[in-house]
Design brief:
Radius of gyration: 15 Å
Low-confidence stretches: none
Mean pLDDT: 91
Number of strands: 0
Distance between the termini: 24 Å
Strand content: under 5%
Oligomer: single chain
Largest sheet: none
């Protein structure tokens, strides 16, 4: 394993750690007591984490493929924002994009 492979693996492990930290934060009893805004954020983060876990499970995945996947998701949401006139939907999509950007930081 060369340094490029090691760097790639460490970046993927960092993303996995974020996912599992998120999962550890939310106890099922806690979720039931969240405000609407907090619950929306939980749903967004949970959805993103589930998509990322499926992607990371692939054997030959690299950090560039993950970044490309994240950027595609952001672009899809931007397209939905442009085509929407519903302010609530637009705000949720913007929040979703913000959370996607946190993945690749």
């Amino acid at each position: 394993m060369d340094s490029k492979d090691l760097d790639n693996r460490l970046k993927i492990i960092k993303i996995e750690e974020k996912i599992f930290k998120f999962k550890a934060m939310y106890h099922p009893n806690l979720i039931a007591n969240l405000s609407k805004e907090a619950y929306d954020l939980y749903l967004i983060r949970n959805s993103i984490n589930e998509k990322l876990l499926k992607l990371i499970e692939k054997k030959e995945i690299d950090i560039n493929a993950i970044k490309e996947f994240v950027n595609n998701e952001i672009n899809l949401n931007n397209e939905k924002i442009r085509n929407s006139s519903n302010n609530q939907e637009i705000n949720l999509l913007k929040l979703t994009n913000k959370e996607w950007k946190e993945v690749i930081i």
